[in-house]
């Protein structure tokens, strides 16, 4: 039902960003602090990016079906700009968090996943409709690798 009123991105951000990151942090530390905000933004934006790729791919059929996704409301060109914002914003939040919480060079290990996102964005900008389909998997896998390396970097820095 969220897809019909343009709230899918917001709910993905809330559930896959805020609840997933802040909830996990709270379960392990029994505290919540401002320090979780930037990782929330990272995972929330990248998760919303996966939904956005899906919605860009389906923009024609969604418009015909009366769905009001963010991609339908923006149109394909602006949905691609929004996608760049989501991916770049997610990365910016993580880079800022790492700088603010720096302990060792290990924390930067996630940077090795950056080329996955550069290639992804390049391919999204060139693709349309069905050509966007492989980008769903690429962004999901890239996000998984990024978060895995981010966690490894934190563990190695302790």
Summarize the structure.
The protein is mainly alpha-helical.
Give a description of the structure.
It is globular and about 50 Å long. The protein has 158 residues and is an all-alpha fold. The model has no long low-confidence stretch (mean pLDDT 96). Helices cover 75% and strands 0% of the residues. The relative contact order is 0.13. The chain contains seven helices and no strands. It has one domain.
Distance between the termini: 44 Å
Using the alpha-carbon principal axes, give the shape: globular
Largest sheet entry:
none
Could you list the spans in which at least 5 consecutive residues all have pLDDT below 50?
Answer: none
Helix content: over 70%
Compute the CA-based radius of gyration. 16 Å
User: Can you tell me the number of structural domains?
Assistant: 1
Mean pLDDT: 96
Task: Name the assembly state.
Answer: single chain
Q: Which structural class matches the secondary elements?
A: mainly alpha
Order of helices and strands: HHHHHHH
Could you tell me the number of beta strands? 0
